[in-house]
Task: structure prediction
Amino acid sequence: MREGWETKFLGEAIRLEYGKPLPKEKRDDAGKYLAYGANGVKCRTNEYFYDKPSIIVGRKGSAGEVTLTEEKFWPLDVTYYVTFDEKKYDLIFLHHCLKSLKLTRLAKGVKPGINRNDVYQIKFNFPPLPEQKRIVSILDEAFEGIEQATKNAEKNLLNARELFDSYLNFVFSQKAEGWVETTLGNLCDFLNGFAFKSTDAVKTSNVQLIRMGNLYQNVLDLDRKPSFYPDNFAEEYSRYVLSEGDLIMSLTGTVDKQDYGFTVEIPATDRVLLLNQRIAKFVNIREDKIDRRYFLHFLRSRSFLEELYSSARGVRQANLSSVSMKKLAVSYPDIKTQRVLVKKFDVLKTEVVNLEAIYKQKLNDLAELKQSLLQKAFAGELTANNVVSFPNAGTRYFDTASPEFSAHVLAYAHYWHASQKREKTFGRVKAQKFLHLTESVAHVDLGR
Result:
């Protein structure tokens, strides 16, 4: 430990004071002051409880969450707020300190809560106040670069996902000559899931119940809160056993949230999967008229989903009905064209998945970098010379307005033309048209 630094219990440096309930009549959406709950701002009020900058620590519920506040505020009764000697400690340094300690790990109980005495017993290395301020200055500069780089990576991750969705919508909304217009009921039937009793569930087995949460965001996640049933249910409820290639959709969600209508294709698996209530299986699909993979992409397209959501019923809980769904419009070209389109979808999807993996890794790297800087700071190893700078974070992380992003888009376009043995037709004019189409369909600005 560096000279002048001291190892102290947190209880020697800070006090965690109890928040106070805020009566309903004192809450005001237009209030002057913020009122904080366990994980951030809860409401506003025209009264304040504490008149100095401080740190809010979640006491119950989101226990251990840490929020900085630099104005007068009201801490609710599910929180602690930090008091300290300003002559010895810097507010921002203490905030970084508490964030780095991951106080959420101290939470206990059914409704998680933390005891402030457990926090007080944690040891931490504190430098003198001038050194705290120097460290904060370096961290602020570094974190500003990390934050901008993170925002760019998140934006590009979102753009990558939206590009595929926008392309799907473009294809299905720009129907060409020869496309057939019909209804969902003319192309398939539905099998609604069974209302299995929760009391029949077992701790583990080879029979898993597929619930709506397992379909979230069109991704089948069998590890998300898995629910198992006795092995003999596979035979007893064979009508509801799912097979590889089956298409299923979630039918219930929250009004105005569009957290339902997710469609997945059942993959090969060693588990026996059972169809739960409020999930529908598409059966008797007319595969002489519509390709199963094309059908899956269509069911996920924005143009179809807008019709689907408008057919839902309910005041707070949105419910889809297989009866009303049969009346929804479906459009499709001939089978050969459908399969050509599916190949295009698959190529673009592969590119998007690769881009997503890149941006997710960048986000992980940035989070690790931030944690590494904090560790250096609290070990007394942080200097202005050993901090990574971000002089051009936007370009590095493929800002959509950067030449690198446009180049990536054109690389994909050329790759597709080459795969169709049409690279000779891909010239300057077509390249500009493709960039214009990308801007129009994906609603991004390529900075041209």
